[in-house]
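Example 3.2
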Amino acid sequence: MKVTTNWIWAVGLSLAFISCNQTETATQTETGQTTETGTTNSNQPADKKEETRTIVFYGNSLTAGYGLEPSQAFPALIQQRLDSLGYKYQVVNAGVSGETTAGGKSRIDWLLKKPLDIFVLELGANDGLRGLDTESTYSNLKTIITKVRDANPDAEIILAGMQLPPSMGQQYTRDFNEVFTRLAKDEKVHLIPFILEGVGGDPELNQNDGIHPTEEGQHILADNVWAVLEPIVKEQQAL
C-alpha cells in the first residue's frame, strides 16, 4: 500500500474514523434497521420469471457512506451497476458508522432473519484504529462468517480486506493486515485485498476528515468491490 503523509496524519486523528456513531439516515441504524438501496432491473422476458437474489453489504461508515447521500455510497453504486446489466439482485446496505467487529458480531443474528445470496463483510478498520487485539478481530470476523453460513449454506461470502499504515506500529500493522488474508484462506471466502485501494491517503478522494471517501472515492470503492463480485454474480445468474 502506498502510504502518504496525509494518510498517516489521518490515522493520527485516532478515533475520528470510529467515533462517528450516528448512523446514516438511510442506512442501517443501531436498532438494526436496514435499507434496500435500489430496485432491481425488470428487463427480463415476461416468460422468464427469475428470482431476485439478495446481496447484503455488512460494514461500518465506509459501507454506510458517511458524509454522503445513501445513493452515493458504494452499495448503491453496485445496485445501479447490477440494474444496468439486467442482473436480478436487491442490494441491502447494512452499514453502521463506528461499527467494530465485536459490534458486528452482536447484531448479525438479527440480520440473518432473512435469507441472502451474497454477503460482503466490510468490518475491521475501526478495530485497527483503536489498536484492538488482532486475534479478537480475527475471531469476531470468523464468527460472523460461520453464522452467515449456518443460516445460508449456499451463500457466497466476500471479505473486504483492510490495511493500516506503519504509523500504527510495524508489528501491529503487519498482524492486522494479515487478519484478512489469513481468514480468507482459512474460511475459503472471496477476498477484496484492500477495499480502499486507490483511495486511502489521497486528499482529493477523501472528505475533509482525510478518512472518509468522497463521492468520487466511493466510485473507486465500488470498482474494487465489483472486481470480486462480478464473477460471482455471473456464476449465480448462470444457474
